[in-house]
Amino acid sequence: MIGSNNYILTKTKITHGLKCKKKLWFDINEPITNDSARARLGTRYEQLIKKKFGKALDLSNSSENSISEAIEKTKKAISSKDIKVIFEGHFSNDDTLVRTDILKRNRNGWDLYEIKASGEIKKEYIQDIAIQSFVAKSCGIKLTSINIIYINKEFEYLKDQDYQGLDKTENITDRVVVEEQNINQYIETLKKVAKKKLSPEINMGSHCNNPPCNYSNKCKSLLPKTTWEYCQISVRRKKINLKRKI
Ligand code: SF4
User: Fold this and answer.
1) Is the domain of 241 the same as that of 148?
2) Nearest CA to ligand 1 atom 5
3) Residue 152, domain extent
4) Which of 2, 70, 139, 229 could disulfide-pair with 65, CB 3.0 to 4.6 Å?
5) How confident is the model at residue 231, as a pLDDT?
6) What CATH number does residue 26 fall under?
7) Residue 4 domain-assigned (yes or no)
8) Is 16 in the pocket of ligand 1 (CB under 6 A)?
9) Which residues contact 190 (CB under 8 A, 6 or more apart)?
10) Atom from ligand 1 closest to the CA of residue 214
């Protein structure tokens, strides 16, 4: 329920786990955090977009609210008619915690908006947003629409601090609702991985790139040297073959 503070998984951990179960295991048991330039750009974009939604209950500052306080405040804000917009609403259910970028109240419920600092709606965003909406709904909130806000590639910065036209919004409710049907199973499978004493045995491969995995040095160090060299040769060969085909 919304008031629960016991969680193992988050949206990010689930998306990592769907890509590589070993990555999820490291996230939980031996984490390395990554404050990349890309992440900082995403945060700046988010701030610009949020400004357009006006006054809101903002739960994004973790030094102001512990997770359990943010969950409680989200719960209260949803039942209070005075709060119209919530930034970073916290929801926890079935050992999983999610934070929704923007919730906006309407007459019948809430519109969910997720912000992506990208010029296109990538397929993985639908899965990512379905995790948010699945957990939020399971905590009892009525979501009347699910939307994505992303970068308008045609935007031109003409005047100081004028960001009109920087973003595009698309209603993706139907696509997300279809994907939500898989989320319960993902959570159950990944919870078992998270609780394992040892990391799962997964070989390095193309899934370690795009974006590069934080744990690649760790995984390389676990490989016998000859195996790592073999992987390198194999990747180089694949690249050469690809170039020949092109
Ligand atoms: S480096 Fe590759 S195999 Fe290792 S955790 Fe990351 S994605 Fe998984």
Assistant:
1) no
2) 23
3) 9-201
4) 70
5) 59
6) 3.90.320.10
7) no
8) no
9) 9, 13, 14, 17, 18, 21, 24
10) 6
